[in-house]
Structure formats: C-alpha cells, structure tokens
Specification:
The complex is a heterodimer of chains A (670) and B (162).
Chain A lengths: L1 H15 L21 E3 L9 H5 L5 E5 L10 E6 L8 H5 L5 E3 L6 E2 L6 E2 L1 H5 L15 H7 L3 E3 L26 E3 L7 E5 L4 H13 L5 E5 L2 H4 L21 E3 L6 H16 L32 E6 L10 E7 L2 E8 L7 H4 L7 H5 L8 H16 L5 H29 L3 H22 L8 E2 L2 E2 L7 H24 L2 H7 L7 H6 L5 H4 L7 H4 L5 H4 L11 H25 L25 E9 L2 E9 L7 E5 L2 H12 L8 H7 L4 H5 L1
Helix pairs in contact in A: 5-8, 11-12, 12-13, 12-20, 12-22, 13-14, 14-20
Chain B lengths: L2 H16 L3 E6 L2 E6 L1 H13 L4 E10 L4 E10 L4 E10 L4 E3 L8 H12 L2 E3 L24 H14 L1
Parallel strand pairs in B: 2-5, 6-7
Antiparallel strand pairs in B: 1-2, 3-4, 4-5
The chains are: A alpha+beta (670), B alpha/beta (162).
Chain lengths: 670, 162
C-alpha cells in the first residue's frame, strides 16, 4: 500500500513540477555576466594595442582608423571569432573600457570568413536572427529534415556542450535527432572540437562510411583555425581541407544554445532541399594516410580473437583499447591513448604565466576548475603570493561545484554504460543546473577561467548565496531519486557489485587515486591530508567505501556529491569579507599578464574530481615557465590499472568498469 | 614545524648516512634531493622498502645550457603523507638511465611517455614504444631544440594551404 502511495505521490509530483527541459528557441537561460561576444566602443579606444598583445590566441588584429585626440596611433581592434576563446584577458586589460562583454553566445555560419568581425561590426550590439525558412521542397526533404541521426564520436572538448542535448535539459529528441553508434546509420557528423592527426584519420574513415546525403557540423574554433591550439604540434588547423563542413559554430566551447540554433538552421535548409556539400575526402595532405585494418573472420577456427574497443564507441570517449577475447571474456587488454594529445607541456612554455590559466582548464574538460586551481596554486607558491581569504573561499566553492558536476557526469555515463538511460538523462539534466550556477559565479559554463594569479577574477553577485542554497536543497532531494533509481536498484546492484574489484594493495601499487582509491577503504584525500586554500577552515569529511568494486566506486562519488554540498553550504556560511584578489607580489610589483616569477621550482598537489592532480613548475625568472609537468589523476588509473582490471571481465561489462574508474582521456593524453 | 616536516628531517638524516645525496631541501611535506645515476636506483629500492608505495610520476626537464637532461621521480608515503623527489642529471648526448619499472609498476608508463616526448632510453623497460603520437619522425617534441614553430608552419599551415 505504501509503495502505491509513493508511486502516486511521485506521479503527482512530476505533474505539477516545472519541466526539466529548457524551452526552444532559447529564452536564454543565461546570466547577465556570461562572457559572450565582445562589444566595441570606438570613442573610448586609444589604440594602445594591449588587447592584441595579451590575446593568447592571436585573435585580435589592430586595423587602421582615423587618428584623433584620443586615438593617437590610429589603430583599433578587429576580432576574429574563429580564434577567440572568450577568456576575457582583452576586456580585463583594456585600460579605457572600449572593449566589454555582452552575454550573447550565438556565433554560427556556413562561411567561416564571416566570423572575422571588423570594428564596425563589433560596435553593433548583437541580436539573434534566424534566416528565412525556405519552402519545403518535397515530402522526402521534409521527412529527411525531421530525423537527423548523428554519429556518436566524442572527438574533442567541445563535445561536452553537445552532451546536454542528450540530457533532459536540452533534449535533442524533440527535433528528431538521435545519436547512433554506426556511421552507416548516420546522417550528420559533429566534429566536436580539436582534431589530432590520429583522430583525423578516424574522422575521415567515419565520414566516408556515412551514406549520402550527409552533413558535417563543426563545433568550436579548433577545427576552423586551430583555435587555442594554433601552435600545437599535434592538432590540425583547418578541417575543411580534409572533409567538407556545412555549418561552423564558433566558441570555445560553444554553449548548447548555438548548437540548437544550428540544428534549426540545418532542418530548415534540409527541408528546402539542401543535400550537403559534394562528398570529398583528402587523405593525401601530409601524413594523413588512413591506417589499414584487418577484417575479422568469424569462423577462422581460432579460439581467441582480437577486438578493438573505441575510439569511436558510444561508451569509450576518444580512447582506444585492443582487447583479446576468448568467447565473451577478455583475456588481454592493451591501451592505445593519444587521440587527444595536444602537447600542453610544450604550449605552456610559450605563454606567459597568466595566459596559461586560460590554457590549463582545457587539459580535462570534465573538471577544468581543478586545473585552474592547481596551476594558480603552483604559480603563487613560486612567486610567494598569498591569496586573500575571501578569494580562497570562492575558489573552494568553484572547485566543489565543479566536482559535483564532474561526478554527475560520471554517474550519467555509469547509467549509460549499464543501460540505465533514464539515469543518464535526469542526472545530466540536473548537471545543467549546476553549470548555470557556475556561470553565475564565474562567467562561463565549462572553462570558467575564474582563477588568476593572486585570487579570483570577480566577486559574487548579491543573490548568489540564495541561489546556491536553493540548488543545494534541490540536489539533496534529487540524490534520493538517484538512490531509488540507481543505487537501490537490484538490477544495477547485480550488474556492478563484484565487478572490476580493486584491492587496496594493487590500487596503491598502480597509482590509483581519488574516489577509486577511497572505494578500497583508503582514507586519503589531499583536502584533509595536505589542506590547501581554505579547506582547513571549512573542513572535509573523507568519504570511503570498502569493497573496491564498480558499484562502490559509483557510490563513493554519489556520497562525495553530498559532502561537496555540505562544504559549499559551510563555505557560504563562513564566507569572510574583504578583497577577492591581491594585485601586488611580495616584492611590491604589480601583477600583470607579463608578470615575471622568481627563479625556482615548486610542486602543488590538489584533490581534483578524479583524484590527485599535481603541477610541477620550473621558473628561470622569465615571464614564461621553463617547464611545467602535469601529473593528471587518470594516468595511472586508466593506462596502468584499467587493462589489468579487465582480465576475466565479459565484453559487455568493459564500459561499466571503464566508467566506474571515471575516465577522462583528455587528462592522460594532455 | 609540522609532524611531516620533522618526519622528513629524521628521514633525511638516515638517507645522508647511507647514500650520497646533494642539494636536499624540505618544503612542507616534500623532500627534494639530487643524486648520481647509480644511487638513483639504489635509493628507489630503499624508498620502496620503506613504504613509499606510490610512484606519482617519472619526468624530465631539458636543460640546454648545461647540455643535460634532469630526470626525477616523485614518490609518496601514504601513512606519513610525505613526498620524496629524487633527481639525477644525465648527459644530453647519451640519454640513458636504468628503468624503475621493476620497482614501481606504475613507473613504466611514465617512462614510456618520457621516452616518446624526450627521447630518453630507460634500460630495462620493456614498453618503450610510441604512446601518444602516431607516425612521428621528427625530434622528440618536448625537447627544447625541437623547432616547433617551423614544424607547425610546415606540417600544418603549409600542407593545408596546398
């Protein structure tokens, strides 16, 4: 009887509650202070060229204008949105306020050259314009436009903003879109961010396997111009040289809204008869030759067979494993990473200490805030800079919110890997609420670039504590629902308990950290072992679990979400007043984007969402680091431990073990 | 002084009596020191026997001025929460050093990365083959004398223009 009452209560609750899905066209669930397209005020510009010098992506070019009393050099900025990553260094450093941000995020086009904004275009405030809908050509084109299937290949970091479209928050199925695993069933491909030569070969192969008509949507700046990685030795700079692209969306990463707008444009064009650009692939340029694959023979009489898992697999991320199978059981596994290798450690040697903050969150898109925090920490240690207490508290709030969304992402992947798609949809839907709050706090959803050397870039808005407390009580209720659907669900328990068991000794010997280590009953968390920022005052209760199997790893993360909510609550309660950022070094020099850091070296370790993240930086007294070593949390876990854990596991459970370890290929590839 | 620091002080005193170590420095709970390439391995064995079970990383720095590679490993003692960093310099023209893969299992993958990105040979490591890069024929990319701007211009911007 009580069960029945509970069910009725749940249904009534759903009936009266606000839907989780945002409306579309977007009513812009944006904050006022989101960093969107810049606005330029010609009267204020004095042509000092600082914006073009400070831009880490070379997106700003100074072009000529009439000289005047204010503007003696006769120069003004032209911003190329094929390159701009909205980090905000230009706006921060503009001495007169001639450049400012609007909260407008939608920049998309079919001709990338039109994204190069002249000063005149920059001076006009942005508005959202839809092209006129063409007439429906015929029934076939209409039907085609209403069922675009998208190939599921998470190429780079921009894919993170395509993911909300799978969740209940943006819900792509209302447009007839669906993500499919096989290229032979796909109509459209999304190139989600930067493309390394290794990935490019697979993209070309997938593209050539798709049936006609086919469309390609390119997300972000990197496939257009190289974007943030314009000088990386391992990313290609213009994808249209290899395959034709129909729609380009600018941003780094673009928000989910422009993707929706792009899809609406695509639907209109397709129903009007647009069948995509002429099919062509270019495999001759440089070393882009396709690798050869051997085709499996089912009845070859061999007891064992080789099997490739990833990199294009619904549950693999952009990561590849060679498995040897005996029947359905894995007997051997070899990791083959590198699809996301951008050479961060090299790139950081050529950007100034401050510009690098804009670069580091991109190492791991799922938990970028931790990387900012660790990198700022190591630079401050070297320079001997003390962060004001309020700044430390805000950093903690940002890091914990980021940990929550990272764990939610992981629980969603756990749901997808075990076939519980409902979990994936609702947990990722809730994650969007956390991202909105992060945007309130920092000005961006994914790459916050909130930290700077000496503190954080801005203070909170007056209504931030209220909004946060609302979200905390909402998420506490939602955690009960995750329990009902997921952790108390017998099917899920049977599937994951006893799977991929890690013992304490093997976990330690193989450099497993974070929640994966704590799930083997090791009480080690850097936040309490070596407290950094304000964690000592706020206090952290370390979450552990005892069995070390897939279930307990997921459970550990679920409990950590709860603890993070408590931490944020305490931090807001105790939030001290005062400045959020210091502007002077101990030597009484002003902290600028060209700050020189004294000679020396430093280590700084923090507890990221995935575990222990260490930065080692060496300075020779210049304004750029001599060497930075990033020791990511998943390197040992995935490249060393994961293959060993797979021995004896059934092929269908490979994704479950994989996501129970909370994988981030971008983190170990760097 | 924190417990961890005093722990490290006494540990350093023991190390000094048994090994030739130089440039030792204690910062918080991290002890960093340099040594020579024979002691590098002996010290690793000693640390492993004394419960430094976690090897966080094996990494390298390219010092063009002195024509040397500095290689170091960072290990962690879980119970006492102290880190030890052991560094050694090897000549750039003969970049070879004994592998630690038999002492810490997780070191092998880090050494493989350093082999690929710096071109340092770790003698005894059975895994030395490309990790991240496919068909790479140029100088190892993280070396300071790898002319990355030329490479990027030639390999990507020019090739893509054609």
């Amino acid at each position: 009887m009580s069960q029945l009452l509970k069910a009725i209560k749940t249904i009534l609750g759903i009936a009266v509650s606000k839907p989780m899905t945002f409306s579309f066209p977007p009513d812009m669930p944006l904050t006022e202070l989101h960093r969107g397209r810049q606005l330029y005020k010609p009267d204020l510009c004095k042509g000092c060229k600082i914006c073009s010098m400070v831009c880490p992506n070379n997106a700003i070019l100074m072009v000529e204008r009439e000289k005047s009393e204010e503007n003696k050099t006769g120069l003004q900025p032209q911003i190329d949105f094929r390159k701009c990553c909205f980090c905000g260094l230009c706006v921060d450093n503009c001495p007169t306020g001639a450049l400012s941000f609007t909260n407008f995020p939608i920049l998309l086009t079919m001709k990338p050259e039109t994204l190069n904004y002249t000063p005149e275009m920059l001076a006009i405030p942005p508005t959202l314009e839809h092209p006129e809908a063409p007439k429906i050509k015929n029934t076939v084109s209409w039907a085609r436009s209403r069922s675009i299937w998208i190939i599921n290949y998470m190429t780079g970091c921009c894919f993170i903003e395509a993911v909300p479209w799978v969740a209940s928050s943006f819900d792509m199925e209302r447009f007839g879109l669906i993500a499919v695993g096989s290229p032979r069933h796909a109509d459209a491909m999304i190139v989600g961010g930067y493309v390394t030569p290794k990935t490019l070969k697979r993209i070309i192969r997938i593209y050539s396997l798709m049936p006609q008509p086919k469309w390609v949507i390119s997300l972000g700046n990197c496939p257009m111009t190289g974007g943030t990685y314009w000088d990386s030795y391992n990313t290609i700079k213009d994808i249209s040289k290899y395959i034709p692209v129909d729609i380009w969306i600018a941003g780094c990463p673009p928000r989910p809204e422009p993707i929706g707008v792009a899809v609406v444009h695509a639907i209109q064009a397709i129903q009007g008869g647009y069948i995509g650009k002429e099919e062509k692939t270019n495999t001759d340029a440089g070393k882009m030759k396709l690798p050869t694959y051997s085709i499996l023979e089912a009845d070859s009489g061999q007891a064992q067979m080789d099997f490739v898992f990833g990199s294009q697999h619904s549950a693999s991320g952009n990561f590849n494993m060679s498995l040897t199978l005996d029947g359905e059981t894995v007997v051997d596994a070899t990791p083959n990473p590198g699809y996301l290798h951008r050479g961060f450690e090299k790139l950081m040697e050529y950007r100034t200490w401050l510009q690098n903050i804009m670069l580091v969150p991109r190492i791991c898109v799922l938990d970028g805030a931790s990387y900012e925090l660790a990198y700022s920490g190591v630079s401050e240690k070297l320079a001997g800079i003390e962060v004001p207490l309020r700044g430390q508290y805000l950093r903690v709030i940002q890091a914990e919110l980021s940990r929550i969304q990272s764990h939610q992402m992981n629980l969603g992947f756990g749901g997808a890997a075990t076939g519980f798609d409902t979990n994936e949809r609702i947990i990722w839907g809730d994650r969007d609420q956390v991202l909105l709050l992060l945007e309130e706090l920092t000005g961006a959803r994914i790459y916050h670039i909130f930290n700077t050397i000496g503190g954080v870039r801005r203070d909170i808005q007056p209504d931030f504590p209220t909004k946060t407390n609302q979200l905390i009580s909402y998420l506490r209720k939602r955690l009960q629902i995750y329990d009902d659907l997921f952790f108390h669900n017998k099917t899920f328990i049977d599937r994951t308990q006893g799977l991929g068991v890690l013992t304490q000794e093997t976990a330690i010997a193989n450099d497993v950290t974070g929640p994966n280590l704590r799930a083997t009953d090791v009480d080690f968390d850097i936040r309490t072992a070596t407290p950094y920022e304000a964690y000592k005052d706020i206090g952290v209760k370390v979450v552990t679990a005892s069995k070390g199997d897939a279930y307990h790893r997921f459970l550990c993360r679920r409990q950590e979400i709860e603890e993070s909510l408590n931490i944020i609550e305490r931090a807001l309660d105790q939030l001290p007043s005062g400045p959020v950022c210091t502007t002077k070094t101990p030597e009484d020099k002003k902290i600028t984007w060209r700050l020189k850091i004294p000679q020396g070296e430093a280590f700084h370790c923090i507890e990221a969402g995935r575990g222990e993240l260490c930065f080692h930086a060496i300075s020779t007294g210049e304004n750029t680091p001599y060497r930075v070593k990033v020791r990511g949390p998943t390197f040992g876990t995935i490249l060393v431990m994961f293959p060993k854990l797979l021995h004896g596991v059934k092929i269908a459970d490979v994704p479950v073990v994989y996501w129970s370890l909370d994988q981030c290929p971008a983190d170990h590839d760097r | 002084m924190s417990d961890e620091e005093s722990e490290l002080q006494s540990f350093l005193a023991t190390l000094k009596s048994q090994f030739t170590v130089n440039n030792f420095k204690i910062q918080g709970n991290l002890l960093s020191l340099t040594t020579d390439s024979t002691t590098y391995v002996e010290l690793a064995t000693y640390l492993k026997e004394h419960d430094f079970a976690r090897c966080l990383t094996v990494s390298a720095t390219d010092w063009l001025d002195t024509n040397e590679f500095e290689i170091y490993y960072l290990v962690h003692h879980l119970k006492n929460n102290v880190y030890v960093k052991v560094a050694v310099s090897i000549p750039r023209n003969k970049p070879e050093i004994t592998s630690l893969s038999t002492i810490w299992k997780s070191a092998a993958m880090h050494e493989r990365e350093m082999w690929e990105l710096f071109g340092i040979t770790f003698v005894g490591n059975m895994m030395l083959k490309p990790l991240f890069l496919e068909d790479w024929t140029n100088l190892p990319p993280l070396r300071k004398d790898f002319n990355w701007r030329d490479y990027v211009a030639q390999e990507y911007y020019k090739t893509e223009e054609e």
